[in-house]
């Protein structure tokens, strides 16, 4: 894996908040998914996304999520949620913001294992 992912720590923090407000209702606070809302963390996520790029994930989120209001996330919010999902799968934040970072294959930066210090649940208030 690369030493750093294509997102900053501040994008991760903001992404956690957007995820809790706009995504957790379907994908659950733990990102485990339910029904048609697939898992966004772990082996199941990596099975479907490891050979796709960070931009593929971002574009899917930006154009088709949330399911009840597709395309309603602005570019920055979609980028922040993408950062949160990547971090939940083991990617590490770095100095480059997501929207200017080049696309990376997800398996190059993530392994499907949330870091020990990463809380998958809702953000602290």
Integer count of domains: 1
Q: Mean pLDDT, nearest integer?
A: 93
Q: At the third CATH level, what is the topology name?
A: Cytochrome Bc1 Complex, Chain D, domain 2
Major pleated sheet: none
Number of helices: 6
Name the shape in a single word: globular
Radius of gyration: 13 Å
CATH architectural type: Orthogonal Bundle
Give the CA-CA distance, first to last residue. 32 Å
Look at the structure and name the CATH superfamily. Cytochrome c-like domain
Order of helices and strands: HHHHHH
A few lines on this structure:
With 125 residues, the chain is an all-alpha fold. The protein contains six helices and no strands.
Question: What attributes does this structure have?
Answer:
Cytochrome Bc1 Complex, Chain D, domain 2, mainly alpha, 125 residues, 44% helix, globular
């Amino acid at each position: 894996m690369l030493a750093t992912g294509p997102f900053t720590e501040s994008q991760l923090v903001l992404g956690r908040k957007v995820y809790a407000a706009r995504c957790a209702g379907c994908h659950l606070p733990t990102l485990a998914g339910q029904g048609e809302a697939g898992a966004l963390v772990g082996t199941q996520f990596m099975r479907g996304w490891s050979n796709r790029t960070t931009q593929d994930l971002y574009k899917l989120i930006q154009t088709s999520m949330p399911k009840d209001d597709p395309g309603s996330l602005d570019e920055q919010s979609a980028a922040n949620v993408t950062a949160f999902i990547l971090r939940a799968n083991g990617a590490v934040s770095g100095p480059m913001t997501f929207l200017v970072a080049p696309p990376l294959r997800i398996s190059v930066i993530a392994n499907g294992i949330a870091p020990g210090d990463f809380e998958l649940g809702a953000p602290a208030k």
